[in-house]
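Form P-L/3: holo structure prediction, ligand MTE.
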Amino acid sequence: MSSEKASTLVSLSDDPLCRESTLTSLDTWITPTERFYIRNHFSDVPKLDRATWRLVIDGEIRHPLTLNFDDILALPSHELVITMECAGNSRSYVTPPAEGLAFRHGAVSTGRWKGVPLDTLLEQAGLKDTAAEVMFEGADHGQEEEDGIAFDLNYRRSLPLEKARHPDTLLAYEMNGEGLTTDHGFPLRLVVPRWYGMASVKWVTHINVLAQPFDGFFQQRRYVMINEGPEDTPDREPVAELKVKSLIANPRHGEVVQPGPATIRGFAWSGVGDVTRVEVSSDGGSNWQDAALLAEAIPNAWREWEFVWEASRPGHFIFMARATDSRGNTQPNNIPWNFRGYANHAIHTIAVEVPTSRAIPS
Ligand code: MTE
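OUTPUT (holo model):
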């Protein structure tokens, strides 16, 4: 990645690598690879060699398989446009200099992914009747700590059989027409449409079909909506499908908008249905108007929307965008609380200013 291109991503952490897009850079339906967010759990970024890489498939199957990269390329492929959002996207952050409540919203991007439907390999392997879940192991490993005890682990996640067998669940080797980059999981990664990004395991080397639910760290201790503290309840809802959400990509929060027509635009998505409506408010949520959805809904991908607003008078304006999906889900006004702040899909709000020709008295 050249430094010029790297600068299009904001670095949240260099170790582990965690970078996200700026909202204004999300100006195309497909996100160029150099603007696609990156989220790693470990410092370790595996540098795998295509020639020696192997994929082992074992567990509750009749024919254990070991495949090389050419074996994967020889299988029928499928290409899909899929939006990926990190479960931690839009979490509030508390690092100064932010004086009020502040959020980062750029851990969402859309790619064109090409690969082999996972089910093709599961068919070849011959699932036994005992198969219940499919676990994926990435080549990256590091340390985690719990109750003061540190331990080594690889990144591992599982999928229920139904999701694993869905024809759109891909083992992808291409992103946006090119081989995967190291950061995005070279040479092969899982891409799970409609689920938060943690499910899309990168650098996959091992697929293990399990007879019982997977109890690994990133399955049971992370990516679970836990209510902790005095109100603790036994609820442990796993993070799975993307909640309906929209983001205003333009203008940017704090922008000065010149008098005249201004285009407010952004993207909206949902993991449980298609986005059917996006409404925009310019007065902090008192009044709402429908935005135009710019193209047909494509399954698994976000929808671009726009709203032309007439900046007819000077002042401070609070813009909000609210999406609704075909299942009738809509975005909440309030941030849904859970201990780790996952899946914040509350209505996105930004402030803009339309200037007067003279200085505005404070
Ligand atoms: N896979 C492995 N092996 N290691 C990881 O740390 N991070 C997950 C997922 N797959 C991760 C992984 C998370 S939390 C997200 S949001 C997506 O990868 C991000 O994919 P990207 O970096 O290609 O955008």
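COMMENT: The radius of gyration is 22 Å.
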